[in-house]
Amino acid sequence: MQNAALEYDYTVAKWFTYLAITFGIVGMTIGTYIAFELAFPELNNLFGQYGTFSRLRPIHTNVVAFGFTLSGIFATFYYVAQRVLKVSIAESKFVHGVGKLHFWLYLALAAWMVVSELLGFTTSKEYAEMEWPLDLLTVVVWVLWGTAMFGLIGMRREKTLYISMWYYIATFLGVAMLYLFNNMEVPTYFVTGMGSWMHSVSMYSGTNDALVQWWYGHNAVAFVFTVPIIAIIYYFLPKESGQPVFSYKLSLLSFWGLMFVYLWAGGHHLIYSTVPDWMQTMGSIFSVILILPSWGSAINMLLTMKGEWNQLKESPLIKFMVLASTFYMLSTLEGPIQAIKSVNALAHFTDWIPGHVHDGTLGWVAFMIIAASLHMAPRFYKREIYSKKLMEMQFWIQTTGIVLYFSSMWIAGITQGMMWRAVDQYGNLAYSFIDTVTVLHPYYTIRAIGGLLFVVGLFMWAYNFVKTMQSDKVLEKEPAFASPMGA
Asked: What membrane topology was assigned to this protein in its record (predicted)?
């Protein structure tokens, strides 16, 4: 259905895009700084306790995962949903108001998260460091997003839900379930009357706590770094290229495959632990099976460009999205390989693990959010993109940074694993721990330089976006490409 007269309201989408740019720069600048701290430990003393690796690391992970990434997801949702559902958010004062309240409470939550973690208030649970008052506010923020989502779906003129909406809905439901169960905690001050009111203890203990944590932790990657990013690429790659999705059936098959398989793979984080052996094995098996739906989505996207590969030369945004799909394939093959018990014995606790995390986060997640924002900018402001040459430069600088990052961490991780396992002729360990630290110094330096290059690219992204807002090159009409659902 075509609605030529329909005017979409991008207010909330713009606000979240500004946040994504801001949080991307802040979160990854902190990440680059702590990478340099690992290479040059004296940097830990530069800002006292507030500049140490241990204080900054949770801020880096949370700002990137739940600041930059979620802002990008929310921005694209408020853009994509209107267009594929054929409805303007402004048509309902209630839904529009909910969307704006969603933004402002989310901003307050993000600011509180940064300040509290900088002050040292943390649960010490990976990807779930926020203390209980912030968890309660997170629930409110999430319910507001769901209200806006289902409000728009209820108003829709397009009866068929495009595949991107399936993935956004799955993100909402998946994170809601995971977050509620993993963050069951008891505020200690109200029980004991002592200590800080910001402190809590988990309702689970021991092995049970570890199981619930990594059921959540691995699936936070699933439902924040994977499922909604697939929603983004399923809209923006066909829209930008003018090509229909290669196979809608494959997109549905991959969707249900991800939903059924991903939730069982978290046990691979607990191999060789006190978790029952059958659960460790199940985590490994489902991790390997996970290759199928993951590659199904990635291959579907790459085949969408079938016969149109010449666009890689002409469009920097196509470059970002095609390489993002490629990094998704790489990362979703690498993860299952690391989950195989014999490989995990070498890889676990080594730098190969952050290498895997970052080739997915930087190459897949960040590239897609960057590409989506630069696709939306001309439509937000009815202005031409300020500089395609700048986008091209950004692409190559950031790609170089990612390659330096993950290749240095692959080498460092495998080196660590081999040195930790090496024994002399008498069966004694051949190397001390500090021997491995000394050997890895060059690779830590390369990793930090790779991160620095990526951050340089983020500043180029921000500059290009702002200059597009101010551009004199007015677009009389939106760039015309065929698109999913005619949106």
From this structure: Multi-pass membrane protein
Is a pLDDT exceeding 60 seen at residue 482? no
What is the separation, in whole angstroms, between the first and last Cα of the chain? Answer: 9
Residues 17-44, buried b or exposed e (16+ Cβ, 10 A)? bbbbbbbbbbbbbbbbbbbbbbbeeebb
Q: Is residue 485 predicted with pLDDT exceeding 60?
A: no
CB distance 23 to 67 below 8 Å: yes
pLDDT in tens, 97-155: 999 999 999 999 999 999 999 999 999 999 999 999 999 999 999 999 999 999 999 99
Q: Is 4 within the bounds of a domain?
A: no
Q: Is residue 487 part of a domain?
A: no
Q: One-letter amino acid identity for 298? A: A
Token output for 269: 């984080």
Q: What is the DSSP string of 319-333?
A: HHHHHHHHHHHHHHH
The pLDDT of 203-222, averaged and rounded, is 94
Rounded CA-CA distance 315/384 in Å is: 14
CATH of the domain at 217: 1.20.210.10
Q: Give which of 289, 124, 290 is closest to 210, Cα–Cα.
A: 124
- Rounded to an integer, what distance in angstroms lies between the CA atom of residue 25 and that of residue 458? 6
CA distance 482 to 47: 53
Could you tell me which of 446, 175, 225 has the C-alpha nearest to residue 335?
A: 225
- Mean pLDDT for 153-165 is 95
What per-residue confidence (pLDDT) applies to 481?
Answer: 55
pLDDT at 146: 98
**Residue 6 — very low, low, confident or very high, per pLDDT cuts 50/70/90?**
confident
Tell if the pTM clears 0.90, that is, is over it: yes
Residue span of the structural domain in which 217 resides: 11-471
> How far apart, in Å, are the Cα atoms of 382 and each of 62, 252, 415?
33, 34, 52
C-beta separation of 85 from 148 below 8 A: no
Whether 280 is covered by a domain: the verdict is yes
Distances (CA, A) of 190 to 128, 136, 202, 366: 21, 16, 14, 41
Residue in 106, 115, 97, 178 with CA at minimum distance from that of residue 137? 106
Tally of CB atoms within 10 A around 205:
9
- Calculate mean pLDDT across residues 310-339: 95
Q: How far is CA 209 from CA 138, 184, 196, in A?
A: 21, 10, 22
Q: How many domains does the chain have?
A: 1
Residue 485 lies in a domain: no
Q: Take residue 212 and report the two structure tokens written for it.
A: 């619930």
Residue with tokens 């700002």: 63
Do 340 and 391 meet the contact criterion of CB atoms below 8 Å apart? no
